[in-house]
Queue: 3 jobs
Job 1
Amino acid sequence: MDASDALHLARAQFGLNIGFHILFPSITIGLAWLLVYFRVRYARSGDPAWLATYKLWTRIFALTFAMGVVTGIVMSFQFGTNWPGFMNRVGNVAGPLLAFEVLTAFFLEATFLGVMLFGMERVPGWVHVTSAVLVAFGTTVSAFWILALNSWMQTPAGEAHTPAGALVAGDWLAVIFNPSFPYRFVHMLLASGLTAAFLVAGLSAWRLLKSGGDAAARGTLRTGVLIAAVLAPLQIVAGDMHGLNTLEHQPEKIAAIEAIWHGGKGVPLELFAIPNQKTHSNDYSIAIPKGASLILRHDPDGALEGLDAFGDDIPPVAPVFFAFRIMVGAGFAMLALAWLGAWKTRRGAAAPRWLLWTFAGATFIGWVATLAGWIVTEMGRQPWLVTGILRTRDALGAVPDAALGASLTGYVLTYGLMLLAYIVVLTHLAGAGSGESR
Amino acid sequence: MSLDLPLVFTVLMGVAILAYTVLDGYDLGVGMLMPAGDAREQDLMVASIGPFWDANETWLVLGVGLLLVAFPAAHGVILGALYLPVAAMLIGLMLRGAAFEFRVKALGWHRELWNWLFWFGSFLAALAQGLMLGRTITGYAGGFGYWLFALVVAGGLCGGYVLLGATWLVLRTEGELQRKAIVWARWGLAWVALGVALVSLGTPLASETVRDKWFDFPRTLGLMALPLATLASGAWVSLELGRSDWKPFAGAVAIFALAFAGLAYSLYPYLVMDRMTIWQAAADPSSLRVVLVGALIVLPFIVAYTVFSYRVFRGKARAGLYEH
């Protein structure tokens, strides 16, 4: 095997881990705040239905959180095992951001989750509510730091060089609040809110299908649907703003998203195509003339840069192109579904069975959109690991292919088992009918 | 006044790693003891570590995070050399973390499977950590003898975790399970004694650098305080087992701290034995200063709420504690 095989293996392994990991935080960031809501409702009303709701979703949260913790530990090690060049080159910037995530978020969420899960009878009510708030706060702070780092890798800012040539942070505020950070952070928080909302709605629908007239499940279905109905349009606006920000700072990514091989004025919008990386053109293209210019420049004759402006430094176009369409498709599907659900359950109306089945089927639709979105943004950054500063292949370590292959097999088997068990347990918990049952 | 930042970070990293081995050590040890208990006892054993294990594992992330932040040059070398044991440890930690959550929600043979995976994952993680330690002491030297040495270290560390886990159970349980835990702790103690003896004899043989550091008259006389204190701690644990609930655990922690001090003395000032010192591997002072200031502000809070959490959950573990 040559160097490019090792690169592909290392990327496959890291991509698998990070893709598997993000499934769980994408739920917990949003779900943690929902738990605060359930807990406060119980504290205010003393209604045992809210307590049962809180307990059921706390168990699902605990499960999801644990999966996020253990897969996150893997990531913290794989920075070093798979990409030693990353820390060597940009460790002075990336290191402190990661350290602050551990110090300000990880201990906080892990410790107070313990109090939240096991301490309800051991601490006063207000301490318990505070614990729930601190867990939710911790998950959001964690997202803040990791997205600051990720955004900095996309759109670096604030860095400086020492006389010896080492890259350091010249201005930490500029590093953290780099040009794409506010957009990416908001986009991710909304994504997590939507993922959690559809999970809650979907599992509640599943519960109603299984056990019929459960008042708590009707309540949580409505809660999930309403949250999704509010967040989905916000996410579409935020996503559009994020896209325009990308056009300004990473035009090659937008060119890949729209499969624009050749720049110019009045660029068409590809509705369907199979981008061909070898011929630098689109096969089976169906396009709207001047459409891309109209959307991105708000002018049918506006000029756009194509991939040809970036030489060899272009991402793999087809995965970015398709993943973007999957993400946008899932986003609009969520909008339609949430609004339909909100309309059908208005003024306490019971949702019809076909709608319940639809929501049950869409339980994990947030995962689809989130994963597709991460593929767009991470593959769209290639061949750079840190845009303009470090290429992915230059960060690769010297781990033998056999070791990479063997561990990759181990990870795939472990993840397969964990994901299967996770989904089985979730549907089982939701279908069990009552929050008190084991 | 200028601060020796690499040294400060070495101390911080050492504290994080010691905290990890003691804290996750007891819950990994409880995991390894799972097959020795019956079904009801297994529930109690898991309940005794339930509120803590998440946070315990965070110390591992802090340890590797500090390595990554403070010593970027060593980070790649160390984790590259330890690639397979690290992968094994990670898979072990994932399996037991998942099993921890899944076992309470499963019934019948599913539950048995997760119990088994909980044991297997704990054991795999402990063994892999021991291998990582053993490989680090010898500077990742190749050859059968060095791997055998690493395996002996791994065996010793597993014994140490079993001792921690068993004495933790002595502290946190009562009645029949506590009586069983006392027996387990005696086995763990014997295992540790053998492990510490083998590692103490093997390390000077495996590394010339270590030999020179320990057998340098008259410094050797002062250094003998470490093995003697370890021996005294072991004897104390043995005496107090069955008499006190908390002293055996305290003694086990003392054994870990002393063994850690010995290993740290053997390695210092190297991060990669005989190849890279802490100063050669250190990151730029500007980023170290930022992290240090942050750590000094945040760590007191972390310690405070960790103490709070242990106070909330003090006392004996009860069945049904894991009802959430």
Job 2
Amino acid sequence: MTELLDVRGLSTSFFIRSGELRVIDGLDLTIDEGEIVGLVGETGSGKSVTASSIIGLIKKPGRIVAGEVLWRGRDLRKLSEQTLEREVRGKEISMIFQNPREALNPVIRVGRQITQVLELKRGMTKEEAHVEALRLLQSVHISDPEQRLRAYPHELSGGMAQRIMVALALAAQPRLLIADEPTTGLDVTTQYQIVQLLRELRAKTGMAILVITHDLALTAELCDRLAVLYAGRLAEVGPLEHLVRTPRHPYTNALLQSRPHVGMTGDIPSIPGAVADLLHPPAGCRFHPRCPNRIALCSERQPDLVLMPPGQQAACHNPVAIREEVAVGGR
Amino acid sequence: MAADGSGANGRVAFAIENLVKHYTVKVSAFQSEKLRAVDGVSLEVRRGTTLGLVGESGSGKSTLGRVALRLEEPTAGVVRFGDTTLTSLSGGAMRRLRPKLQMVFQNPLGSLNPRMTVGQAVAEPLRLHGIASGGEVRNRVVELFERVGLSRDHLSRYPHQLSGGQQQRVGIARALAPGPEVMILDEPTSALDVSVQATLINLLRNLQAELHLTQIFISHDLSVIGYLSDRVAVMYVGEIVEIGPTREIYASPRHPYTGALISAVPSEDLLDRRLRMMIPGEVPSPIKPPPACRLAPRCPFAKQRCHEEKQVLQPVGDDHLVACWRAVAGEISPDDFQHQARMALEA
């Protein structure tokens, strides 16, 4: 498969009164054509800042301080704002957000918001744009598309608004859709409808999707590959199955273990302590103060991402052992 | 269930009968309509047990929690705490009972005064209800802080100086301060990160057991409810559609809506993709809910009768009630939910 996006050594900091917040610190991430990648992390992990950095939407006091964002071979960081806006953002790379109603313009009918994009980014006439807008609403399974085009955002339910956002994002026929917590805040029954929709659209159009989420269960239903972020650094990256069944980084392992479930007895295994303070991050591995596997080296040297069996990369000096039944090929 | 609420399953400590909460909302300059947030809910919680209340947004579960403790007045219905009927108490009598009935909210910052140290915030209910005075107060506060996993160092901090998890611990300490018997917890861990959530859930579970609290735990998260609750009640658009023992409901849900919710619970192995039951459409507005069974317009198993006849909770097993005539008649079962999921996947 061809590589669409290749992020190399990306570092983004926020310069506030008390100092430099190193929100992302040397991040590498690739996305292939048609691939669904999950960027998983908790609050303050830098997952949303990563997305904004990729599409050049970091605002003051934030700034990308190092790294390259190679999009189909060209470095987006070297493009002017106009070129980025005209050729890439909202065209080759589209984005959907957690609060779809807030992302839509409240005083413009949703139909007009879609046709505007079609006229602007695909050079359609008004009539062509209207026909295409109807087709787009049908492709995201909205019933009564004619009527919905005339609706204002506040007249839509949460699930409907997210479908409209997806339609809007698809309008420019992007090669990559960045979906920031696309199902958070939606009802359980609606969440699944959106997951199904995203999978179907990938199959039909071949676009890649970068899913940004805190929800491992969501990634398990949607993603091919996962990248787990902790305090601005990648802890582990690799195929979904490996990360979920044989995690090597203690943080990935802890995230998986800390989900409660029915019939579980005793305490839920939890991660002690709080997320690292980015103003004064711990030396060495940023997870070491909370890590059950830490050894002396962990506070001294930052671990590099290295390839580990059964086939993922993890940044850890003392990785989680592979459970035996898996090592011998069982399950 | 014995009529007096006692019997093998223990005494009922908290009961709600036919509770109704309607709001009047303006739909235009000249027109108001009734929003049926809670529409005739009955349930019982036995002493020292936790009832999990699940539902999606707009199901009325949070309103139910507030009305049950009379933080808002119900439109109709009765709430009982032991032998006392809360809904007929005067304001003064209700205030005297308040220490026994406490609530924990999703957003602890909203219920903490930003200008008060968290130590003062926890001391306040102790003084207010005359539980402690003078030097005793500080000792009690320190004790409560330790109980919820905070240290003495935290006493003099302000709410904004604490992490989300620590703020919620303060919220819990404040609710525990007056020595409650009944606690209603409304999504207490939903705003927290996964790693922090786990420690809070462990804390709540251990506190419940140690203090023998009677709890209603409100959440949209079926994994959390499944872990913490002895019994579960499922709400849909202002009504309870199913109620029963947690293990039984999770193993064999009887209402199609419960079936869909349970099929969405991630299994222990995240890749063990169970068949998910598809319910098309979205939750209807509580302003104009469907007239008969409220799920009927979305239900894959609906028959003509479902659109015509209001459904009431009926027994389908020991301590297990469901508001679906087809489930009661044995016409639909968990196997049918599985089958529907398989068909939906193939389609």
Job 3
Amino acid sequence: MEHVGGVEVEELPETRQGAKRRLLSLFIADPHQLFRECLARALGRAGRFDIIDRTESGTTLLEKFALHRADVLVLGTDVPDAELAGLIRGIVALFPAVKVLILGRAESNEQVVECLLAGAGGFLLRDRSLAEVVSAIEVVARGERVCPPGAMRLLFVRLGALGRERKRRERLDRLDLTPREMEILRLIADDLTNPEIAARLNLSVHTVKNHVHRILEALGVHSRWGAVNHAFAKGWLQERRRGV
Amino acid sequence: MEPTISVMILGGDRVFAEALEAVITGTEGLCLCTDTPAIVLIDASFQPAEALALTWSARERFPEAQIMVLGLEREDESVLDFIEAGAAAYLLKSASPAQLGEALRFLREGQVHSSPRIAAAVVERITALEKGRKFVPPPASCDPLTARELETLSLMARGLRNKEIAHALRITVQTVKNHVHNVLGKLRVHRRRDAVRVAYELGLLREPWGPLDLF
């Protein structure tokens, strides 16, 4: 409970909260004038937004937006979905801070994914309710992303494919060294000198030197220390061993 | 009537697995399956690291199946690791059996319901991974290798030196050098290591690990 001059001020915390949650500024773009105006009015009534401007979503959009930047750009569009990703990339390149919420028809989930990867903060299908639009605006303003479930599935699949590719690349990276070289690298990591490695593996010191030279060359490093670090960073070696 | 979804349970505690089995057997539209599941459920509640490894291997073992990870603590980065490993969906510890049934039905319809926070994190990681890809245009094809060159290449892949290859194939070192020279030329690379790498990319050599030998 806050006390100001001995008087209980109950509304203070609320006022503070209100001050912290300043109104989000919105810019509404949609080719359909009646829809645009109605949406602006309805969103304005929600009491959480400050509607800065509205316009058609054609070529004039970028010029107009430059004059009245807003936190969130609500972009309804008759731009074919295929071109939408390009438009978003343009907006994000020019105004990196703006969050773009698309109100679209989404001809396909693939295109929704393309829009999100192009930098859109969210994609809301036009059959969603007004209340959902309101909460979606708040979500994208926080830096989170609104994504329909069908497109979400595709995002997961895409990340899965990239994950597999990464795993495969890591395994191929390991092939930069032959099994023998990997064995020697392990011993280098154990702090053995070349003569010690030679004795351990029954090789001549000269041969060990050659191997070490090839290891450094293959990994693109300049020192034994660099090679060992590389191996740990890649997860080829798991732990430091002492006294082996 | 909707076709039955066949479900397999992997990992996790026995008692949880059995409880889960009981729920699945008792739910219309779901059945247990041991060979070709449509859905693989993996419990990650107690040993997330093992569950992650299990997800990687389940994806290789059951390429047709969709994997759902159960029992995650919260929606954070760890969720992304499972998705990278091939999970198609996930449920948190706090989910109810009804939500499990719902998630399974959504999955069949090609839908995943997730939070905006995870959506943002997924988009971010995809972008990072796509940027981090070293752009090495893999050659679409190469001039065909002779049987002898292919043999030489497979020995190169095992790390053998020219002298050792010569010994193994009972040919002179000079002949080996010629073969190696031709292989590098045909694969358009300069180093033996790169030749081996490209050979795997093109499928000329089989990668030296089985589907389960991921770690």
